[in-house]
Design a protein that fits this description.
single chain, about 65% helix, mainly alpha
Length: about 425
Amino acid sequence: MPTKRQILLLFFLVFLYRLFFGLWQANWMEIDYFQTYLIGLKFYATGAWPYFGPDVTGLENLSFQSQIPGALEGLLIGLPFHLLPLPEAPFIALNLLNTAAVLLLAGYLHRRLPSLPFVWLSLWIASLPWTLHEGTMIINPALTFLPAVLFFIGFMEATPLFTLRWLAAPWACAWMGLSLFSVMQLHFSYVYLVPLAAFSLLAQIWKSRKPQCLIYFILGALPPLALVVPTYLKYGLSTNNVVSGFTAPFDWDNIKAFGTILARLLSLACYEMPRFLGLTVAKRIAFLAGHPLLLAPGACLWIAGLLQPLVLLLGWFKQRPPLPQWREVKWLLLGILLMAEVSFWFTIKRPYSHIFFVLLPFVAAYACYVGAFFGDSKAGRVLTKVLVAFSVFFWAFYAPSFEPQYSIYPQRAMVAKAIQEKDYHLMGERRPGSLY
């Protein structure tokens, strides 16, 4: 494990890398990103309490309008303006939090699997396509990354079947409560954390024959719950029915999508390149051909990203690994896969990858166990480090190539004026019918 000074240096470098990517890939031309930023700017400009957070209306849900109750999103995006009244302020705050999540997750995985170096784990997680594209920009799933990591560690350490005794059970339960009720204000994917939390709490009660874990879980949940209470006091409990717009008795298309869900879940911890290079194979090839510096690493990562989910799938069937808790971890992943599959039987939403983003820490842990099988192979270690280096290099030069379309800088002057004059209307208007 590196020294504290080395960890601080690593944190600083990873933070700059991810901040640079998020600023140049802000996606402000897409309405969901624009409107998410606007919620925080409205809170800063008006000082009005943000009773509601993420818009349920979006590119996926054009026919259904509502907002998730709770102030957490508005505060996370709007409060940084009070410390630094610049357009970049929310990006800086977000990437500080998510860089901490990257190193915390890497440190915990290193503790579970000491053969995997902490620095390389950090670089791997920091440069995964999904942690970059979904975790560095101002959009509500990005705000779930730190809570997702805290929930994962809390779950693993609170559940007797998985614990390393690295974190005391009371703190682990509190982390689960804090994380679950934070994600609940940010994204509907919190539904995946509910059965996991219930399983952990029941397992603890079964083993100890005492319900103290519930007390610690509730204590952890109190801070985020306090941010929802004002909404219910002002608007009543009916504000909690937003999820009902997506329910269905059975969605046969989703029932048939088991293979798609499996591939997308596993790909969270892989170098899934195609969807970020272009909508068609021709556009993807044209992008790489038009950027000679990125051609070789991009092609290697593309091939690796196609093979990695297959390796992770086949790794599940390995019978006798010399790794502690491998059997428990692989059955946990199967349970998560089945939970994700069944959840889509009863919704009209399609199984898009970003819906599973909150489960990335669990998939990353499973991927590390499979990767550790090759830890004694020099070729495997070299290949892993080469792919991580390629990934860090590729995304660093990928980000500025889209500057005219995606970065904050073509519109920075307009946003800076809105911040200076505390008039969010100068940037834009909230969606018609929005609650906040």
